[in-house]
Each structure stands twice: as structure tokens, then as C-alpha cells.
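Possible regression after last week's pipeline update?

I re-ran a chain I had predicted before the update to compare outputs. Posting the input and the new output here so someone can diff against the archived version. Not blocking, just want to make sure nothing changed silently.
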Amino acid sequence: MSDAHGAEYRQRAGLAVEILDGEALIWDEPAQALHRLNPATTAVWEACAEWVAVAALEAPLPRAEVEGSVRDLVELQLLRRRDSFE
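New output (post-update):
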């Protein structure tokens, strides 16, 4: 993953979220899917409450793990991506 072109990420709206013991449980009603995030990915998820670039994320993880968490959250359609040209 590269955010060299200024991509930013934000939580997708309309999801039901509960944080329990540092792990997020996210219910995606349209997909009828329940997701359980580990504490590291939960930290990334919470940091994406507003539009944010990967480089600006303040999570307790090395950058490669942050990028991996963002990639996973995008694949699960839990984060939205906005490019600099939008």
C-alpha cells in the first residue's frame, strides 16, 4: 500500500460498533456480517474516525502493520478511501 498520492481513509458510516476489552466488534447490516478486530487494528480503526492519511495515523504499531490494518479494513469495506484528486 502506498499513500504517496495523498490517499486518506475514514470509517464507513452506518456501522454498529462496540469496543470491548480493546477489540472492536463491528456489525455491517447491509452485508449481514460481524467483524471482530484485534486491539492493533482497533487502534487504527479508531484513528480513522475522520479523514486521515496513513502517514498521519498515530497508532501503537510499526508503519507496515498500520498499512496492513488499513488494507484489511478497506478489503472488509469498513474504511473508505479518498484520493487527493477527489
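Follow-up from reviewer: compared with the archived run. The helical segments are 39-47, 63-75. Marking as no regression found.
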